[in-house]
């Protein structure tokens, strides 16, 4: 059986780091995810999806994400049954995130430049990709290995 989900949206509010009684870090946040289609009146709908992250992923989210940032959450869908204050049975769906990635650059979110941003937790890009971080956040290397400068004077393409 397979239960994997990947969603991309903007954080509705700043995430807050909490700790369980046993000392485990946890955060919950909501992503506003636009639907790919428009309604009959031409407007796009938005789904507000609850996400929970644990341990290092929770710490990463709280440190580097804030309201309005685009985030990609990868994990599993979980359905929880619970009782409200009046004793009524309720059911909630949420994404339990294994990994959270940047969905935009810092430049897109109107603060600073995108180079030097931290990698998504648990998914660093190998140094062979230019020594930077995942998702286009690292500065490209000056001269990628295996490539040679083409002389502009030649006029003929090398292939």
Describe, in plain words, how this protein is organized in 3D:
With 159 residues, the chain is mostly beta strands. Helix content is 6%, strand content 39%. It has one helix and six strands; from the N terminus they run ββββαββ. It has a five-stranded mixed β-barrel with strand order 1-3-4-6-5. A hairpin with a 5-residue loop joins strand 3 (25-38) and strand 4.
Subunit arrangement of the protein: single chain
Give the topology string: H per helix, E per strand.
EEEEHEE
Which stretches of 5+ consecutive residues score pLDDT under 50? 111-143
Averaged pLDDT: 78
**How many runs of DSSP E, i.e. beta strands?**
6
Shape field: extended
Strand order of the largest sheet: 1-3-4-6-5
Distance between the termini: 48 Å
Structural class: mainly beta
Strand percentage = 35-45%
Please bin the fraction of helical residues.
Answer: under 10%
Largest sheet properties: 5 strands, mixed, barrel
Report Rg: 21 Å
Number of helices in the DSSP assignment: 1
Question: Quick summary of this structure?
Answer:
This protein is mainly beta.
What's the topology here?
Elements: E1 5-11, E2 18-19, E3 25-38, E4 44-54, H1 55-64, E5 70-83, E6 89-102
Parallel strand pairs: 4-6
Antiparallel strand pairs: 1-3, 1-5, 2-3, 3-4, 5-6
């Amino acid at each position: 059986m397979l239960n994997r989900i990947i969603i991309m949206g903007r954080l509705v509010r700043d995430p807050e780091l909490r700790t369980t009684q046993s000392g485990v870090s946890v955060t919950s946040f909501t992503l506003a995810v636009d639907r790919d289609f428009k309604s009959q009146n031409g407007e796009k709908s938005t789904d507000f999806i609850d996400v929970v992250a644990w341990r290092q992923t929770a710490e990463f989210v709280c440190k580097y994400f804030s309201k309005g940032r685009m985030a990609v959450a990868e994990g599993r869908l979980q359905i929880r049954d619970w009782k409200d204050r009046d004793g009524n049975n309720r059911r909630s769906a949420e994404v339990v995130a294994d990994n959270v990635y940047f969905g935009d650059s810092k430049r897109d979110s109107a603060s600073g430049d995108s180079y030097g941003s931290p990698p998504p937790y648990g998914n660093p890009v190998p140094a062979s990709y230019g020594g930077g971080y995942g998702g286009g956040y690292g500065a490209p290397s000056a001269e990628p290995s295996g490539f040679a400068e083409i002389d502009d004077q030649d006029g003929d393409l090398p292939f």
